[in-house]
Design brief:
CATH class: Alpha Beta
EC number: 4.3.99.3
CATH superfamily: Aldolase class I
Family: Belongs to the radical SAM superfamily. 7-carboxy-7-deazaguanine synthase family.
CATH topology: TIM Barrel
Radius of gyration: 17 Å
Catalytic activity: 6-carboxy-5,6,7,8-tetrahydropterin + H(+) = 7-carboxy-7-carbaguanine + NH4(+)
Largest sheet: 9 strands, mixed
InterPro entries: 7-CO-7-deazaguanine_synth-like (IPR024924), Aldolase_TIM (IPR013785), rSAM (IPR007197), rSAM_sf (IPR058240)
Structural class: alpha/beta
Cofactor: S-adenosyl-L-methionine; [4Fe-4S] cluster; Mg(2+)
Order of helices and strands: HEEEHEHEEHEHEHEH
Shape: globular
Length: about 210
């Protein structure tokens, strides 16, 4: 049971429910193929039925760690830090990104945008979900839009979301892993007909790395 004092620090963003942190190759989107240090923060109530990291949902199962300790670990591995989840914007990201930027690190976030944008980011990957749509200014600030394609209706959802981001935002369609064999041909056909989109694949799974 986390004390009230620690929960106050978590709510302030000076401690975070850290699920895991690891150095690997970015597998998706614009930065795929590049080395990065991942910080996976626990806590998410978006509830995608196909989520492949459901163990991240319950923040209470992941002990709060001080942001200072997280930043110290991050500096040992890479110049590029990717904050993911769970849903990292559940928490105030300002203290974490302030610490990372103080070490001259590049800050990237992968988020559904379901909560207001906090933190200072060099790259924002917005991956909206139907269950809980993005809020606030993140549509205008997203550098890439990554829509997960599970069924045909997701193409309609993708276009609805693409209409909300800036003209400079890079658009990606990514097959949900469990239905990739079915959806990849449909995504390829769609992108060929609508070349403003690009195909994103979870290349880290093909490479069998985290």
């Amino acid at each position: 049971m986390v004390s009230e004092e620690i929960m106050d620090l978590v709510n302030q963003g000076t401690m975070l429910p850290l699920m895991e942190e690891f150095y690997t190759i970015q597998g998706e989107g614009y930065h795929k193929g590049t080395a990065a240090y991942f910080i996976r923060v626990g806590g998410c109530d978006v509830g995608c039925h196909w989520c492949d990291v459901k163990e991240s949902w319950n923040a209470e199962t992941h002990p709060p760690i001080s942001v200072d300790a997280i930043v110290e670990n991050a500096t040992k591995h890479s110049d590029t830090i990717v904050v993911t989840g769970g849903e990292p914007l559940t928490w105030d990201m300002n203290p974490l990104t302030q610490g990372l930027k103080a070490q001259n690190l590049q800050t990237h976030i992968e988020t559904s945008g379901a909560y207001p944008l906090t933190g200072t980011w060099d790259w924002i990957c917005l991956s909206p979900k139907k269950n809980k749509l993005p809020v606030g200014e993140i549509y205008n600030k997203a550098h890439e839009l990554k829509v997960i394609i599970y069924n045909k209706h997701d193409f309609i959802f993708a276009e609805e979301q693409a209409a909300k981001v800036s003209q400079d935002c890079i658009l990606y369609l990514q097959p949900e892993w469990s239905v990739r064999e079915k959806m990849i041909p449909q995504i390829v056909e769609y992108v060929m007909k609508n070349p403003k989109w690009k195909v994103s694949l979870q290349t880290h799974k093909y490479l069998n790395i985290p």
